[in-house]
């Protein structure tokens, strides 16, 4: 397979044999049997060329290595322990290659949502006098963090009105939050007036 991957083209048994014989003595039938076995396993495909075949790799060397690792890992009775042991055997360069591979598989990182810069706070103040509805007088401060927010923090001073013509029907301040209408800066009550 090394020769077939290295050449990255269809090769005959004779070509592989001649290349291997530069390193060691090997028989033609041995090379032919190995290539035939690889064909039966699906690692190479072959096309007839006269009385011989040309063999070509079905997948890359990297895909072959990945398939071997996956096969070994899937046969483990404790895959997590197998991975830990495998990572423990890796060199620093291999660990960096693994980190790079994980980044490629995961794709580009989506940035964490950033906080929006503080928007100006909207504050309204009603300073004294008698409320025309006869509901409240004094200081009314509504604060909203973002425009269009529905919740407004309402801190109201106790009613100090001495107008005898109006009746104060405001509830005592409980320190909670009131729900305001669409405009967070308005001093409207919950009934929209």
Can you tell me about this structure?
The model is unreliable at 130-172 and 176-187 (pLDDT under 50). By secondary structure, this protein is of the alpha+beta class. The longest helix is centred in the middle third of the chain and has 15 residues, at 92-106. It is elongated. The strands form 2 sheets. A 4-stranded antiparallel beta sheet has the order 4-5-6-7, with no helix packed on it. Strands 1-3-2 form a 3-stranded antiparallel beta sheet. Helix 2 (13-20) packs across helix 3 (28-41). It contains 6 helices and 7 strands.
> Structural class of the secondary structure composition?
alpha+beta
Mean pLDDT: 72
Strand fraction: 15-25%
Secondary structure: helix percent: 25-40%
Using the alpha-carbon principal axes, give the shape: elongated
Unreliable parts: 130-172, 176-187
The number of helices is 6
User: Number of DSSP strands?
Assistant: 7
Question: Which keywords apply here?
Answer:
single chain, 193 residues, alpha+beta, four-stranded antiparallel β-sheet, 6 helices, 7 strands, 35% helix
SSE order and pairing:
Elements: H1 2-7, E1 11-12, H2 13-20, H3 28-41, E2 44-49, E3 52-57, H4 61-74, H5 79-89, H6 92-106, E4 122-124, E5 140-144, E6 151-156, E7 177-179
Antiparallel strand pairs: 1-3, 2-3, 4-5, 5-6, 6-7
What's this model, at a glance?
The protein is of the alpha+beta class. 35% of the residues lie in helices and 16% in strands.
């Amino acid at each position: 397979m090394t020769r077939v991957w290295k050449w990255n083209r269809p090769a005959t048994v004779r070509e592989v044999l001649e290349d291997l014989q530069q390193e060691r003595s090997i028989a033609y039938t041995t090379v032919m049997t190995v290539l035939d076995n690889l064909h039966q396993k699906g690692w190479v495909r072959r096309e007839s060329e006269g009385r011989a075949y040309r063999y070509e790799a079905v997948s890359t060397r990297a895909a072959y290595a990945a398939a071997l690792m996956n096969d070994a890992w899937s046969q483990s009775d404790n895959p997590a322990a197998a991975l830990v042991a495998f990572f423990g055997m890796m060199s620093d360069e291999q660990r960096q290659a693994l980190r790079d591979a994980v980044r490629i598989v995961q794709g580009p990182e989506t940035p964490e949502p950033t906080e929006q810069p503080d928007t100006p706070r909207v504050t309204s103040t009603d300073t004294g006098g008698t409320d025309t509805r006869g509901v409240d007088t004094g200081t009314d401060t509504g604060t909203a963090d973002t425009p269009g927010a529905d919740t407004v923090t309402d801190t109201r001073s106790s009613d100090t009105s001495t107008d005898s013509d109006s009746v104060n029907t405001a509830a005592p301040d409980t320190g909670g939050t009131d729900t305001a209408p669409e405009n967070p800066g308005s001093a409207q009550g919950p009934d929209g007036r």
